[in-house]
Each structure stands twice: as C-alpha cells, then as structure tokens.
Amino acid sequence: xxxxxxxxxxxxxxxxxxxxxxxxxxxxxxxxxxxxxxxxxxxxxxxxxxxxxxxxxxxxxxxxxxxxxxxxxxxxxxxxxxxxxxxxxxxxxxxxxxxxxxxxxxxxxxxxxxxxxxxxxxxxxxxxxxxxxxxxxxxxxxxxxxxxx
Length: 149
Description:
Blueprint: H1 39-44, H2 52-65, H3 68-73, E1 90-102, E2 109-120, E3 123-136, E4 139-147
Antiparallel strand pairs: 1-2, 2-3, 3-4
C-alpha cells in the first residue's frame, strides 16, 4: 500500500501519535485475531507472509501502528522510498480486501485490490488501490500500485 496526498505533507515525527494498538488489541488488518497473534508476528519478523494477501494485510496494519521498519523491509528495493511519511492527522480504521489474483505459495507475482478506510483530521475517506506484489529473495514484497479512484 502506498500513500498519496494532494495536501502539503506534514513531518513524520511532528505531531505523530503513538499507536493505540497493543498485543491484545484486535488486529488492524480485520482478521479475527489479536494483533500479537496476527500481523504482530510478521512485524516482529518471527513469521513471513505466506501470500500476497497476508502481506497486504500486514502492511495495512503496519500503517495503522506506524511501523516504518516493516513497511520498508517489505517494499521492493527498486520502488522503496527512503522513508515513510506518516501523516499525524490520519488514522487507518478498516481494510476491505476486494479481490486477489495469484500470490500463493505457487506463484511469483500477485495482486490485491482493496479499499483502506481512514479518517484524515476526523474526516472519513478511503483509498482504493490495486497493489502488485512479487517474490524477492524468496519473500513477498510490495512492488507497485495502481490507484482505482
């Protein structure tokens, strides 16, 4: 998942709120498990995403908890930015997976089309995107995206 905005960007550190997600919180990705038992394991590096959908969910959760290291680690080196610009006024609230193609243990590429719901300074909005994933050095990584809206 990438992030775009038409507003001037705010500093990633200026006014950044600490994550309200704890190990026992429901996982931000929307699956019925605690953060520790779901995406938290991927963020900690104790488990690799087995599918591109699992990677998409974990990257969404990483945006929600502001885990820059995980986002950069799971971004293809050819398209990876030098840093992630977290917007202090943005709060990710829900992920909808709309479609997946390929991206299993038997594939080397896959796509996930999703809608990520958020609030921006309290105003609800969403991001509709088709993300492309590839295997890089044996692991799924985010490569590129096409914005649907």
